[in-house]
């Protein structure tokens, strides 16, 4: 079939499915909350972009697929999308950069506290499981704070080393700090946890789970001072390996899996702590997590197993402690999603605090998407943004004025229209504060 092309002046958008997020955000009062922050940088003239439009359009650009500043041009000339969200106009990528560069340490901290604190203050759910994890964001320029440090994917390359706190129960991010690339995982963790607890003020932390990067006397003591249950993976220092090698009381859990419940006191601890050790036969579980006892290399009675160990103050059975900790692996999936779908690894600027502010907004966009999945989609399958983008958001539409009222005409197959109307109704019925049942 031969055909020609021509152009139309109709305001057509390929992203009409984002109208659901627009409805949800209006019900939540996101713009009203942002407008109450006096620390958000204001334009230098009356002709400048509204800071509310900049923040909201930045998040919308991410939902449309932008994972670096240049990609935010995806929304700039979409007049129908601009009309859906009620912006005067959509900024270009340089506007976002100039906006975030106005943030300093104080205003970036206030932005984080404002967005995370406000959201969790309006969630009727308690007894959280908190998972803290660090990540490596590789850098290729000379950005502030980009230093050589632990970087398993790109050894010797400069990076940032952010730390993130996840509320595992809700798949939400509770806190985020950007840190220099030469920072150890546990560095300044007490201050980070204190800041996280402030953002979760009024909530109860039922359990905190940490990987071995946070295993230290200072971290354990600080959590105990806060009277919080914890499970922390142990670093396999030589004394730990020696103790495990002498252990005889192994309880079979499954084929090739044994567990040991004991106590251990490091040389710098004031008292012993409970230690749960798991060993798995490599021939039966070749993909098992853990490590071999390097101190006994070549000795089959030790090198046939992979070991993992956890220090805890909980009174659950050893098997339950192990199973509870294994659920922490979901935080790694969340970090992967942040990097792949929300530009967590690629929205970076020369200025350190500008980068932190931009990533804070990107993470807030993730939190809104998580709420969208729970309260609008209400699906048992938690699809990633990359799937939702083409399943729900990428639907063509154009505006038409009918008797003085704008109507969004959506190009959707008949068999999908009932489902689409259901999502429309759900997005308009989101109650705020958000109510989650613990049952």
Write a structural description.
It is a single chain. The chain has 439 residues and is of the alpha+beta class. Among the domains are: 181 residues, no CATH class; 80 residues, no CATH class. 38% of the residues lie in helices and 19% in strands. The chain is built from 15 helices and 17 strands. The strands form four sheets. Strands 8-7-3-9-10-14-13-12-11 form a nine-stranded mixed sheet, sandwiched between helices. Strands 1-15-16 form a three-stranded antiparallel sheet, covered by helices on one side. Strand 9, helix 8 and strand 10 form a beta-alpha-beta unit. Helix 1 runs parallel beside helix 15 and helix 13 packs across helix 15. The longest helix is centred in the C-terminal third of the chain and has 26 residues. It is elongated and about 85 Å long. The model has no long low-confidence stretch (mean pLDDT 93).
Query: How many beta-strand segments?
Result: 17
Q: What is the SS-derived class?
A: alpha+beta
- Pick out the low-confidence regions: none
Which strand order does the major sheet show?
Answer: 8-7-3-9-10-14-13-12-11
Number of helices: 15
Helical coverage, percent range: 25-40%
* Overall geometric form: elongated
Taking all residues together, what is the mean pLDDT? 93
Indicate the radius of gyration in whole angstroms.
25 Å
How widely separated are the two ends? 59 Å
Strand content: 15-25%
Kindly report the oligomeric state of this protein. Answer: single chain
Largest sheet data: 9 strands, mixed
């Amino acid at each position: 079939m031969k055909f020609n092309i021509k152009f139309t002046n109709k305001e057509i958008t390929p992203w009409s499915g984002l109208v659901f997020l627009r409805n949800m955000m209006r019900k939540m009062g996101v713009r009203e909350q942002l407008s109450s922050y006096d620390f958000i940088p204001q334009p230098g003239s009356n002709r400048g972009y509204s800071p509310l439009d900049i923040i909201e359009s930045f998040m919308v650009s991410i939902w449309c697929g932008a994972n670096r500043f240049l990609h935010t041009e995806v929304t700039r000339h979409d007049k129908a999308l601009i009309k859906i969200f009620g912006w005067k106009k959509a900024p270009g990528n340089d506007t976002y950069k100039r906006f975030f560069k106005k943030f300093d340490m104080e205003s970036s901290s206030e932005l984080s506290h404002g967005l995370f604190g406000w959201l969790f203050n309006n969630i009727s759910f308690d007894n959280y499981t908190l998972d803290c994890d660090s990540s490596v964001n590789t850098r290729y320029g000379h950005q502030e704070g980009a230093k050589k440090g632990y970087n398993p994917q790109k050894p010797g390359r400069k990076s940032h080393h952010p730390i993130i706190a996840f509320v595992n129960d809700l798949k939400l991010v509770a806190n985020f700090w950007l840190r220099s690339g030469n920072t150890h995982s546990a560095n300044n963790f007490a201050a980070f946890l204190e800041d996280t607890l402030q953002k979760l003020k009024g909530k109860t932390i039922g359990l905190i789970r940490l990987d071995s990067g946070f295993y230290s006397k200072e971290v354990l003591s600080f959590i105990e001072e806060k009277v919080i249950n914890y499970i922390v993976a142990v670093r396999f220092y030589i004394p730990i390996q020696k103790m495990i090698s002498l252990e005889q009381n192994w309880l079979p859990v499954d084929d090739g899996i044994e567990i040991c419940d004991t106590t251990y006191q490091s040389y710098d601890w004031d008292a012993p702590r409970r230690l749960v050790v798991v060993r798995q036969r490599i021939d039966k579980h070749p993909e098992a997590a853990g490590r071999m006892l390097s101190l006994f290399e070549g000795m089959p009675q030790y090198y046939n197993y992979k070991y993992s160990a956890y220090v805890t103050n909980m009174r659950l059975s050893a098997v339950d402690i192990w199973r509870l900790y294994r659920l922490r692996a979901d935080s790694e999936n969340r970090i992967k999603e942040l990097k792949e779908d929300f530009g967590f690894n690629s929205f970076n600027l020369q200025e350190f605090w500008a980068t932190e502010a931009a990533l804070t907004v990107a993470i807030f966009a993730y939190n809104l998407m998580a709420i969208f999945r729970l309260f609008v989609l209400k699906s048992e399958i938690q699809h990633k943004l990359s799937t939702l983008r083409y399943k729900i958001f990428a639907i063509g539409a154009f505006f038409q004025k009918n008797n003085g009222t704008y109507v969004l005409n959506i190009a959707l197959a008949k068999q999908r229209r009932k489902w689409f109307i259901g999502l429309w109704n759900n997005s308009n019925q989101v109650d705020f504060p958000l109510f989650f049942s613990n049952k």
